[in-house]
Amino acid sequence: MKRFVIVIHGWHVHSNGFDVHQVDCDDTQRAEQMATYLTFQREQTFDRCAWKVIEIESDTKVVRKLTWRERFTGRLNTPQ
């Protein structure tokens, strides 16, 4: 199993915030299906959402909020 972080961003006229979910899936395609499902659950009539899937290493622990750059690019910035 691979580990993924799914970031969902909602907005109407302005940002309605981010939802961040960590999931374990077999592959990227299954993680994207899960992101689509979670986005569908959040969307409302005037609240549109977009999502991004970020694959993380199995031993990586994300204990902080993702930065704006990580949310939009889909890359987790880890110290070298």
Task: Describe the fold and architecture.
This protein has 80 residues and is an alpha+beta fold. The chain has one domain (2-73). The protein is built from two helices and three strands. A three-stranded antiparallel beta sheet has the order 2-1-3. A hairpin with a 3-residue loop joins strand 1 (2-11) and strand 2 (15-25). It starts with a strand and ends in a 7-residue tail after the last helix. The mean pLDDT is 83.
Relative helix content: 25-40%
- Spatial ordering of strands, largest sheet: 2-1-3
Poorly predicted tracts of residues = none
Q: N-to-C terminal Cα separation, in Å?
A: 24 Å
SSE ordering: EEHEH
Mean pLDDT over the full residue set: 83
Question: What is the assembly state of the chains in this entry?
Answer: single chain
Largest sheet: 3 strands, antiparallel
Rg, rounded, reads: 13 Å
Write the SSE topology.
Elements: E1 2-11, E2 15-25, H1 28-42, E3 48-56, H2 68-73
Antiparallel strand pairs: 1-2, 1-3
Q: What would a concise description of this structure say?
A:
This protein is of the alpha+beta class and 80 residues long. It is built from 2 helices and 3 strands, in the order E-E-H-E-H.
Relevant terms:
80 residues; alpha+beta; 3-stranded antiparallel β-sheet; 2 helices; globular
